[in-house]
Amino acid sequence: MSSESQLKGFERQKRNKQTANYWSWVAKRKELGYWDIPGWKKHQNLLASRNPDQDWLDVCFSKISKSPPKTALSLGSGSGSLERILLERGYVQEVYGCDISPDLVQISQDEAKKLNLKAQYFVADLNDPVFNCPKVDLVIAAGILHHVEELERLFLEIKKILKEGGHFIVYDYVGPSRFQWRENQIKRCNEWIEKLPKNYLKKKGYPWYYTVSKIIFNSIPFSHSEKLPPFLSKWFGERVGAQVKRLQQASLTLNKVVPPPVEQFLVTDPSEAIRSEDILKLASQVFKIEELIPQGGTLAQPLFGRIVANFLKGEEGKVWASKILDDERLEIEKGNLESDLVAFIAKID
To answer: Does CATH place domain 8-177+272-348 in 3.40.630.30?
Structure first.
């Protein structure tokens, strides 16, 4: 292995550790996300099937029912919830799961054993994939590909692990990389901000120390300058500079939707949406995409991220949430907005 490859591997290991630590922190804080908005599941099901009770998995497996898979490999298996669904619904008979976190792999394996499920788990880095399992009828990836930088390599390895006639099913964010949202998307979100009552725009869920930091930061004379003074930039370094950039853009009220500063991912999850906009293009170079299913998120993600808690209490919040989700669905169906979340079924081309 060349020294350059070794250095790249070391850098990836550091990023992987940072990513794991960040999401462990998020999980412990039990933060709400846009997917917690009232009516979200129904909204996605209507986009997938026009049936409020039929989700993207139902649609995908109905499309491949002529050659139903017996075995599956699940990428980025996390705590094992998807694999349990696949087995409990009878979509597959046996499943393998892989994740970058040894802790999550052990949790998933213990749960499968407790429930007497035919599921086996192993550790794998999807940027440098080694799949320790036999060839399978199906590979499924839900919400993990937008964290993968080496997509070309991963797709080739998926092709190798699939049996002849096998399928690749994906559910993921495929919108602009690093959440640098499109102009028409931002415009539509900001139109909704103008309509929403002010009490729905207060951000919730920030740690107390963030609020204090923001107040102190606002009192510093140069805090909102385009660039920090050179001596401070050099002293602070790249990571602190990224934190400053986050604080400059952050507010305790959602006044308007703007894309997050790319620098913020240096201090949160460096893998977040790293090449999300390339997923469909690169997948179509290796596989034949047979079905593309919109799943929304185009307005919901930029709008609801930090204000979702405001919509969970009382009927009025549910009505506002429903109006926004209905608008998102209608605009996607008309072709006026692209769907940032999609599911798709692919086959070896």
So the answer is: no
